[in-house]
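Cross-check.
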Amino acid sequence: MNAEEQEDNAMLETSQVPYATDGTDFKSAVKYHYVTALKRFAKYFVIFAPMFILVFVTGIDYLLPLAIVGFVGLLIALIFF
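Predicted model, tokenized:
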């Protein structure tokens, strides 16, 4: 198999999705994309939420910059994911 054939095979391979892509199964497509977006958001929420909540739980004032970073991170996660 030469390089040209490998390139053609790579172009033919597509990613598989667990729903029909012809438009007949709309609910499964929406569910799949909802779960994917929720997983991406959860990755950031787990990191930034404790940073934001920590200053209110402990009451330590010098953690305010950390809370601000956590709040901004949550906003960015909400907007972009």
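The mean pLDDT is 82. Residues 26-58 form the longest helix (33 residues). Passed to J.P. for a second look.
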